[in-house]
Amino acid sequence: MKEKLDYLVKKYETKDFIKNDPIQFPHRYKDKKDIEISAFISSLFAFGKREVFIKKLDELFSKCFTPYELICDYKKFNLDNFLYRFIKSEDLCALLALLNKLYLCDKSSLEELFFEKKDRFKRAVNYFYKYSPCPNNCGFCFMFAKPENKSALKRINMFLRWMVREGCVDFGIWKGIKKSELFIPLDTHVARVSRKLGLLKRKQNDFKAVIELSEKLKEFDPIDPVKYDFALFGAGIEGDI
Questions:
Q1: Helix %, strand %, coil % for the chain, to 5?
Q2: In whole angstroms, what is the distance from residue 206 CA to residue 163 CA?
Q3: Are 183 and 214 in contact (CB under 8 A)?
Q4: Predicted model pTM
Q5: Residue 160 — pLDDT band, cuts 50, 70, 90?
């Protein structure tokens, strides 16, 4: 099994992966702040039809010179007509306002917000709910799903993979979190292939399933288990398994 998965990692963890993935947006930038801000926003919108949310993200980032500029002066950009599925302009503006507060008012960063290993997800998600002007909006609640509500936290785990792992796809710009601490970004493709291979027994795609699969993948690589996201996701999309 390890040999098969390692082969699939080498097949899919290539620069060619970037062009059709939301990680293409942070790859446009060089500055650390721009990379992590664009990566965070891109990951939160990475649901639904890939070609549709990539188009929406492209429209958003084309409005500004850098993502840091976007959060600094978001009120000057025309975002009134922004809509993606059930995420409306007020949800997007709330997100940008909160990132503005984090970086400019609190003199902090996303890296600091996610740094603490204990209650990492709860601490980060609660920050956005605590200061949001629209915490009960459907779109905002979807962007910041809570693990206690049985969410798999796929998009946040994907964001953390981008920031922590290093390689030709992932950035590896956050040094305070170990690769072994990451969890697999569990979506329908990864879950289906994992169950087919006997790597995942749990039927629900929730955070318990994320923990189960992540621990199983540590048997193949205890230092960098989440590298197998490329194998499982790629195989699910391309039908390799």
A1: 60, 0, 35
A2: 23
A3: yes
A4: 0.96
A5: very high
The tens digit of pLDDT for each residue in 182-229 reads 999 999 999 999 999 999 999 999 999 999 999 999 999 999 999 999
Beta strands in 43-201 (DSSP E): 83-84, 87-88
Tokens of 35: 């990379």
**pLDDT-derived band at 141, boundaries 50, 70, 90:** very high
Q: How far apart are CA 69 and CA 219, in angstroms?
A: 43
Count the alpha carbons within 13 Å of 36 in the hemisphere toward its beta carbon.
Answer: 18
CA dist., res. 168 & res. 150, Å (int): 32
Residues 6+ apart with CB under 8 A from 37: 67, 68, 70, 71, 99, 103, 110
* Residue linked to tokens 């960098």: 224
d(CA 59, CA 57): 5
Contacts 24+ apart (CB under 8 A), 74-83: 74/100, 82/56
**What distance in Å separates the CA atoms of residue 94 and residue 77, rounded to the nearest whole number?**
14
What the block records as the tokens of 86 is: 């059930």
Specify the 3-state DSSP secondary structure of 179: helix
